[in-house]
Write a structure and sequence with these properties.
The protein is of the alpha/beta class. Helix content is 40%, strand content 18%. Strands 3-4-5-10 form a 4-stranded parallel beta sheet, sandwiched between helices.
């Protein structure tokens, strides 16, 4: 994004450590370091309307990429209040401020779990999608993007498997026939930016995620890539589907 020469880039995040690490990495990057003066890291929550108002007053953003959400399905089954507070009302807050401050584009990052949702997390994202879609505004174009799992993102199954490998196993899979769509972080970022350019308002962009990956096979492959033999050196343990979890995403 920095290489597209924005006037400013506001990094707004509730996670202090992640925000610090991102800012630090950009400042010390051989290529991106020259853009560091454009960055404005802001520690805040989309649920805090007073701080959001101050941020919009100060920076008057033209384009918003909204990815703030609670994303872990099992955790949100146990914490539905926070799922609704952040995923639904946090999105509503941002949408309302985007309209009030005449933002040009608002790109909402959603998930394939919003399709026929079986979980609190998926349902909360679908409600937020509906609020974004129903906006009819002459100034702000509202665009929604949907995709599946992002490899090596926070909480990704590949990260979980790697940690389990470091502890000597077992690798845990909830069902032997569970499948998911995957894409790389770089692909996800590029497609979100592209949707922001292509969108005229009201669309849901559903990215081509390729073929679904069987999670059991992914576990086997990760064990083999570490020079080990599945179910000999490292066990693959089937633990059973969790609340809100589907065999297939749509």
């Amino acid at each position: 994004m920095l290489q597209h020469n924005p006037e400013k880039l506001i990094l707004f995040d509730h996670a202090e450590s992640g925000l610090f690490d991102l800012h630090f990495a950009i400042k010390h990057d051989a290529v991106l370091g020259s853009y560091a003066h454009l960055l404005h890291p802001m520690v805040g929550s989309v649920t805090d309307t007073l701080f959001l108002k101050a941020t919009f007053e100060t920076f008057r953003p033209e384009i918003i990429y909204h990815a703030a959400a609670y994303k872990h399905v099992p955790l949100m089954e146990e914490n539905p209040y926070m799922a609704i507070l952040v995923n639904v009302f946090g999105t509503k807050n941002l949408v309302d401020f985007a309209i009030k401050y005449n933002c040009r584009k608002f790109v909402y990052v959603s998930t394939d779990k919003a399709v026929n949702p079986s979980s609190v997390m998926g349902a909360s994202k679908r409600i937020a999608e509906m609020y974004v879609q129903c906006q009819k505004n002459q100034t702000t174009q509202f665009i929604t993007t949907r995709f599946g799992n992002v490899l090596d993102s926070n909480g990704s199954v590949t990260q979980i498997f790697q940690k389990q490998l470091e502890f000597g196993g077992p690798l845990t899979v909830t069902h032997q026939e569970i499948y998911r769509y995957f894409m790389l972080i770089s692909e996800a970022c590029s497609l979100v930016l592209e949707a922001g350019v292509m969108g005229k308002g009201g669309e849901i962009f559903i990215f081509d995620m390729g073929n679904m990956v069987k999670i059991y096979d992914l576990a086997r492959k990760m064990i083999q890539l570490n020079g080990l033999v599945p179910n000999k050196d490292i066990e693959i343990k089937v633990t059973g589907l969790r609340h809100g979890e589907k065999l297939y995403e749509e």
